[in-house]
Amino acid sequence: MFDEKFNCKAILDLIPETYFLVDDNLTVLDSNKAASALINTATNNFKNKPINSYLQSNFWNSFLSSFEKANEINEEAKFILPDKKRLEANLKAVKTEVNGKCLFQLLIQDKKKLQDNVKENKMFEQQITSVYKLGSIGTLAAGIAHEIGNPLTSISSVVQMIKRTTKEKFTDEKLDLVKSQINRISNIIHQLVEFTSPSASTPKPTDINKLLESAISIVKMGRETNNINFIHELKPELPSLKVVPDQLLHVFINLIMNAVDSIENKSGKIWLNTFREDGHIEVVIRDTGTGIPKKYMDRIFEPFFSTKTPGKGIGLGLWVSYGIIKNLDGKILVDSQPGLGSIFKILLPV
Ligand SMILES: Nc1ncnc2c1ncn2[C@@H]1O[C@H](COP(=O)(O)OP(=O)(O)O)[C@@H](O)[C@H]1O
Ligand SMILES: [Mg+2]
Predict the structure, then answer these.
(1) What is the pTM of this model?
(2) Which of 24, 23, 25, 27 lies closest to 46, judged by CA?
(3) Is the CB of 219 inside a 6 Å radius of any atom of ligand 1?
(4) Whose C-alpha lies nearest to ligand 1, atom 7?
(5) What domains does the chain contain, in order, with CATH numbers?
(6) 133-177 pLDDT, tens digit each
(7) Probe ligand 1: pick from 258, 266, 270, 290, max atoms within 8 Å of CB?
């Protein structure tokens, strides 16, 4: 049978706000689970004791008089809990009369917790919208690559043909220039859709730690890194993963290169960690570089978004990495503190 009283109690126990029922002496008659958690005692202990012994505050002095004009109040209040911790809260109180007796229902909301919740929701939302955006950019990029790639191939063969027939040195030199620029464009296009076109190489069981070590050596060959202290902590017994090694290598090189670039010419550290957690292998790359300004956070994965001088970066690194990891059903997570450094995490399902 439906028991309304029981049902009410169950609902009160589910809500995150602290609930108290007090009488007009401010003695506690009832409370919910969140109240027990906040005060750190079992629910039964509350009964028949003054509320002020749990939530100390001057607020209670004027509590009853605030109901002279209204049956409901919404106020901010500060309390001191039994363990001396402070609580800043939004308090809602409703006056009800039961059998001629005046009772008050209180809902108390921790302001700090409220702010944390809002922040969490915001981050989540931001991630959703940027992932959504990246998906549609991916379709666009594939379309553009196709539309540009085809004419480029015909231009390239025409250039080739003229080069074979011309005897003029000037024309020949200019055609070389055209050819090198065509190569540049087709390189970019190739990068742009690297992970959307089926790769020539097939996935095979791959040792993630070895791949990461190779990436580090390759970066060290290509960039000046004497100013940087690389700290490795790679868990030895990781299971091998079935991936296209070249693609994942590409991701690691991108992330390490970005870390190196962010340290610039100063001295700094780059930590590289691998370990297994639940159903995935985690690869963490952390640097003590410039960090990423908040306003750029949801743009860094966009194609051609770069804060680097031309020649150092064209902004495809993270975009391509994102695509490769997504194809592996993995995730790239990023956190950064401007001025202190950044941390990139790759989660790969085992
Ligand atoms: N570890 C990092 N530290 C600071 N900024 C970073 C880091 N990684 C990426 N970024 C920022 O994200 C942008 C995009 O990165 P990426 O896609 O690799 O392109 P590129 O390296 O060619 O600029 C960089 O230009 C930089 O502003
Ligand atoms: Mg890069």
Answers:
(1) 0.58
(2) 27
(3) no
(4) 258
(5) 4-112 (3.30.450.20), 199-350 (3.30.565.10)
(6) 666 666 677 777 778 888 888 899 899 999 999 999 999 999 999
(7) 258
